[in-house]
Write a structure and sequence with these properties.
globular; 5 strands; alpha/beta; 148 residues
Length: 148
């Protein structure tokens, strides 16, 4: 996953007024690193209106609608940490991992993210870290997983 995550797309001291603001910040971050066209931002908000991207343990994984895929230039991730948290329809979110993916790429990315977030130590570390290098390290597959 490290090739999908530009260090400029990691922001660990974000502040959001609400869920939609947090999602738009994810979308703008993906835009800023050249992964998406500006229209993808609203596709991410639209996705959230149809189904929540909250996955539990203070984490949400916002991504665009199927129609928004045309706005994706290349697969990418962004990681935004909201230390004060964001109300996500009654859930407290401190970490958003935004996804931009062409085709069915989001399915693979969601699967890889789920494996990382299912590890309670890695998930906690991602929620709590203030170090960009730590985020990059945590989102890399383990060496033994790569060789299997």
């Amino acid at each position: 996953m490290p090739d999908l995550l530009d260090r400029a797309a990691v922001r660990l001291d974000a502040v959001a007024a609400d869920r939609d603001d947090a999602i738009r910040q994810c979308g703008r971050t993906l835009f800023d690193v050249g992964a998406v066209d500006a229209t993808y931002v609203e596709a991410m908000v639209e996705r959230e209106r149809s189904i929540s991207t909250y996955v539990g343990e203070g984490v949400a994984i916002p991504h665009g609608t199927l129609a928004g895929k045309d706005a994706v230039r290349h697969d990418a991730l962004c990681v935004l940490r909201f230390p004060a948290g964001v109300d996500w329809d009654g859930n407290h979110v401190v970490l958003c991992v935004g996804i931009a993916a062409k085709g069915d790429g989001h399915v693979r990315l969601l699967s890889e993210l789920a494996q990382i977030l299912l590890d309670p130590d890695k998930a906690r570390a991602l929620r709590e870290t203030t170090d960009v290098d730590e985020v990059l390290r945590l989102l890399q597959p383990d060496a033994e997983e790569v060789t299997q």
